[in-house]
Design goal:
Elements: E1 4-10, H1 15-19, H2 25-34, E2 39-42, H3 44-47, H4 56-68, E3 72-77, H5 92-108, E4 113-116, H6 122-135, E5 138-143, H7 152-164, E6 169-173, H8 184-192, H9 197-208, H10 213-223, H11 228-235, H12 248-251, E7 257-262, H13 276-285, E8 289-296, H14 299-302, H15 310-338
Helix pairs in contact: 5-6, 8-11, 10-11, 13-15
Length: 345
Amino acid sequence: MTTRIQRGVSLYSFQEEMFLGRMTVEDCMAFAASIGATGIEILPEQNMPGFPDVGDAEVESWKAMAARHGCHLSAYDMFLDTKIRKDRPMTDDEQVASIVRDLRLCHRLGIRNMRVLVFVRPDILGRCVPYAEELDVHMGVEVHAPWHLEHAWILRTIEEVDRLGTRHLGILPDMGIFMKHYPPVFRARFERQGARPEIAQFIVDQHEAKIMCEYTIYEVAVKMGGNAAEIAMAETLRHAPYANPRRIGDYAPYFRHIQAKFYEMNEDCTDPAIAYDEVIPELVKCGWEGTLSSEYEGNRWIQDVMEVDSREQVRRQHVMFERLIAEAEANHGAATAAQPLAGGK
């Protein structure tokens, strides 16, 4: 069995090197192409100096850059600056206008997937659907921790999709919702900031046991008299859910793109925190078609003690992707071949 899962990378993964002037956007694309991650997810507000007034010449330069490296632009990360004015928030009409502006630029760039921030109301997005359908752009609401696939807010978006009967609105999972184990880089950073090893271990054990985060925060802050670093570490549990990977196939019809969040890859190209080894087999099993787009966010947890090497981290993740996809294809193919024919023959 051969899946239609493609591999890509978000330019956000290289934020450290780009901020320090050590990599250009083209450097990022060239590296992504070198590891077979040919789908490039962009953040126009961060990556395009002229945003939102992006001229035709700049649009064509992006397309040409991608073509030079055998890549394609796979997703557009939009933002909605609802507090752009000091005196009042954006009105509903202004929100719609801002989203339509992004849809139009997305279309001009030849991109068919737009990441929508999780706080955008379903009814606002419903008003944008006619524009998305006209421009053939899928709006995917990011399912980002602490939300998860079956959170009531996410289900409201899915209900709106079903109500409208549209293929141009849905969700976009962020793999941070599948945090099975507490990230070692988190723990190490908090211990450098003064967390006692025994308190840090208690927090890790609580997460491993999937104890409700508020109980752990109370234990650390009140009963244990935790210091600032320990309380901050406990509070990260609010954004460390472990959603059930077996349910992702049920929602596969609603998404075309995945933000493959990760904080650290081991030298053996395994992720110590996020359950990719459980999620990817489910994606293969349900026949999902789309892009796994690397989103490395480990830089902020190690930059105080070591040089950040985002390229090596992304490379390791794609070695893992190739291995897990191949294993899942082989296992699913074998399981399918072993199934008896109808009637037991």
